[in-house]
Amino acid sequence: MMTCDDIVDALFVDGTQETLSPDHEMKNWKIGKSMVINKDSITAVAVQCRDMGWPGGILLSVQCRDDVVFETSGSWKCSTESHVGWEKPGFLMYSTQWQAAKAINKHGSPPWYTIGEISSSAMWIWSETAATTVYCRGAVNGIYNMIGIFVLVKFDNKSL
After folding, report:
1. 151 pLDDT higher than 50
2. How is residue 24 annotated by DSSP?
3. Cystine design at 8: which of 4, 61, 67, 78 (Cβ 3.0–4.6 Å)?
4. Cα 40–46–49 angle (5° rounding)?
5. How far is 49 from 78, CA to CA, in rounded Å?
6. Among the listed residues 126, 113, 102, 122, the one whose alpha carbon sits nearest the alpha carbon of residue 47
7. CA 132/CA 137 separation, integer angstroms
8. Which pLDDT does position 127 carry in this prediction?
């Protein structure tokens, strides 16, 4: 489940762009966006978001059954510029334009408070540099095996 204050432009899992909810829902950061990810494993998640007025933030967690397997944190890398292949696993972030994400606040803290079923330990993140559009990516520690498991998530509090 994820959200972005203000607009989620794209979400990639292992370089594949995921289908998100209808456009009007992607513009309401107060509603967690969700999807079912049918993959054998996950190694990288990449998100492109836009902020229409400070503060900007990205909040995301991936759950497998009842276990949180991945979430936004200061270990993510962010840039204010898109680079070819930035969304793909194995993308090398040697450029100084890819900095550690700024961990703004823990999920549940003001000004955002609690958003849907996103993990309570996920952090709101953004780029260190104030920007309207940011590109952030995180790598899963190791390859999380999801064989035979799916990620159950919800759109606007309705099960898929």
Report:
1. no
2. H
3. 4
4. 140
5. 11
6. 126
7. 17
8. 93
Q: What is the DSSP letter of 126?
A: E
CB within 8 Å of 65: residues ≥ 6 apart: 149
160 has a pLDDT exceeding 60: no
- Which 3 state secondary structure label does DSSP give 59? strand
SS3 95: coil
Gap between the Cα atoms of 84 and 103, Å rounded: 25
pLDDT of residue 149: 32
Question: Residue 147: pLDDT band by 50, 70, 90 thresholds?
Answer: very low
- 139/26: higher pLDDT: 139
Amino acid at 92: L
Q: Are 150 and 156 in contact (CB under 8 A)?
A: no
8-state DSSP, 52: S
Structure tokens at 111: 């000004």
Are 131 and 99 a contacting pair, CB within 8 Å? Answer: no
